[in-house]
Design a protein that fits this description.
68% of the residues lie in helices and 0% in strands. The chain is mainly alpha-helical and 218 residues long. Helix 1 packs parallel to helix 10 and helix 3 packs parallel to helix 10. It starts with 5 loop residues before the first helix and ends in a 16-residue tail after the last helix.
Length: 218
Amino acid sequence: MPAITSEELKTRHRQVRDDQPEGLRVRIHRAISWLARAEREPSDPDAAFIFLWIALNAAYAHEFGFEERELVQIRRFIAVLVEHDRDQRLHAVLFRQFPGPIRTLIDNRFVYEPFWRALREHDGSGRWEQQFSDSREIAMRAVVEQRDEVLLHVILDRLYVLRNQLMHGGTTWDSSMNRAQLRDGVAILGTLVPVILALMVEMKDADLGQEIFPALNV
């Protein structure tokens, strides 16, 4: 399944956007613009990952605050996507295109938040290792049972840690220390985000909530 380009998505969206609610239309328009920017960074995985995550953010985010963590929003968004994915395009990405990178990501402790928390807090109890083992078991069971929603939760949880490392200056640009997870992250998001946006283009009445920072005519 070849990756869908931002230009293809833009063309598809022009044909249906007038019939979409403004919130959904704006989300798609913004997300496609960031996907297009990511496509211009084939030799800079740091930049490509950041732009791809902004595209994903534009697609799902509706409000940030103490009352709701970002990962909760992502999970709600995934549930809507899986419900609308009648042709199982997300399933194809997860189980046909990227089984290797996904398994590598799941096995990588450096994109598992409790590992870093234990390091920061000097926690030598080994609790994070048990949590990591439990998380891997959940993910592997989702692979065996081919449960799209569960596997997407685990993948995006891992990629969210990588996102935080980059966005909060927790890594060096073009570092040699996180290349494996970054390459896998770009490969997975680079295919997953266009599929997500293609599904959104086809939605007519999905309730994704108010888009963050609505477009204002001032």
